[in-house]
Amino acid sequence: MSMAKRRSVGLIFGGESPEHEVSIVTARSIAQHLDPLIYDVIPIGVARNGVWTVLTMNGKTPFDRLTSQERPEKSDHPFLPLEKGAEGTPLPDVFFNAIHGATGEDGQLQGYLQLLHRPYTGAGLLAMAAGMDKWITKRIWQSEGLPVVPFVGLTEERWQQSPKESIHAIESLGFPLFIKPANLGSSIGIEKVKVASDLDAALARAFTYDRRVLIEQGLSVRELEVAVLGGEDPLVSIVGEVLVGEEFYTFHDKYVGKKSKTQIPAEIPTLVSDLIRHQAQLAFRALDAYGMARVDFFMEKTSGKIFLNEINLIPGFTAISMYPKLMEASGLNYASLLNRLIDLAFERHAKDLKKNRGFESGHTWA
C-alpha cells in the first residue's frame, strides 16, 4: 500500500442500544490511536434517534454532540440516515464499526454497509446476527459439539401462553439461575435468581429488554476470556481471567464500580489454556466470524469443566477493556491492532469483489 494517500476511515459509533455511552468511549479511544499520517478519521455518531451525526457545529464534534445527547434532525432524503445539511458527505474508504449492541452488532449495519459497497471492520451480517443472539449462538455451538452451560430459551409469547410449562422447564435446571436478555451486551439486564419465588419478577424485567430470554444454570465458575483476530485461521490471544468483584460481572462493576480485576495471563494449567484457545477458534469459525471477537468461557470451580459462555463481536476498546489488553499481552499493541482490523476489512472486500455476482440464463423474458 502506498503511504502517499491517507485512507479515510468512517468511525461509526453511538447507536440506539443501551450500550450507546460505552460505544462513545470506545470510539474516542480508537480515534486517539489511529495514526494521523495514515488515516483521516471521520467521526460518524449515530444519535439515540438513529440519525447519523457527521457535522462539527459550534465547535462541537460528533463525539461532543452525542455526549451531550443531541438528537439531530434527519435529512429530507428518505433513504439517508444522515442528519440534515450533511447530504453531500462523501463515503469514506472504509468504515470502522464501534457500535456495541443493537443495530451495530446484530447485522443491521453490516447489511447497510454492504449495500454501500464499502469495506467495514469486523464480522459480516450472518455472524453478527447469530453472535448477537445468545440463544442462537449456543444452538450453533451445540451443533458443532462445543460445550455450553445447560440452558432454556424462552420467548415472551411462549411465556404468556404457557407459563406453567415454561416454569417447569426452567426449574429443571435447578437454582441458582442466570436470566439474560438474548440480544444485549455489557451484562445489561442480567439477573441472578436464587429461589423460585423470584423467578416471575426476574423474567418480567428481562422481557422489558428483549422478547427472547435465556435462562442458564447458575454454576460456580471462574470467568476466562480470549481475544481472536483474523479470518479463517485467526490469531488467538493468551487467556485472561476476570476476577469478579460482585456476584457476577455486572454492567455497574465493568464500568462504574470497577471492583473486578483482570489477570493476564490467567493462572491455569497449560493444557487448559490450550483447550480454551482451540475451542475459541472453533467457536469463531462456527459462526463464520471475521475480524475480531472476544470469546468468553466459564471454568467450573468444582469439576474444572470448560464451557463456552458467549462471543462478543464488537468487544470494548476502552482503556479497561479485555480485548486490547489480551492482544497487547500477546504481542500486538493497540495501534497495530487497529491497523490489522482495517487491513482485514480491505482484504475481505477485495475477495468479495472477485466473486461472480452475475448470471445469464440465456432466456429472453420479454
Distance between the termini: 47 Å
SS strand fraction: 15-25%
- Name the CATH architecture of the largest domain: 2-Layer Sandwich
**Radius of gyration, taken over Cα atoms and rounded to an integer in Å:** 21 Å
List the domain count as a whole number: 3
Q: Which range best describes the helical content: under 10%, 10-25%, 25-40%, 40-55%, 55-70% or over 70%?
A: 25-40%
Order of helices and strands: EHEEHEHHHEHHEEHEEEEHEHEEHH
Q: Given this structure, which CATH class of the largest domain is correct?
A: Alpha Beta
Find the CATH topology of the largest domain. Answer: D-amino Acid Aminotransferase, Chain A, domain 1
The global form is globular
Report the average pLDDT across residues: 91
The CATH superfamily of the largest domain is identified as: ATP-grasp fold, B domain
Notes on the protein architecture:
This protein is 34% helix and 21% strand. The longest helix has 21 residues. It is globular. It folds into 3 domains: 114 residues, Rossmann fold (3-Layer(aba) Sandwich); 68 residues, Dna Ligase, domain 1, CATH 3.30.1490.20; 131 residues, ATP-grasp fold, B domain (D-amino Acid Aminotransferase, Chain A, domain 1, 2-Layer Sandwich). With 366 residues, it is α+β, with helices and mostly antiparallel strands. Strands 9, 10, 11, 12, 13 and 14 form a 6-stranded antiparallel β-sheet that branches. The protein has a 4-stranded mixed β-sheet with strand order 3-2-1-4. The chain has a 4-stranded antiparallel β-sheet with strand order 5-8-6-7. A hairpin with a 4-residue loop joins β9 and β10. About 2% of the residues have low confidence.
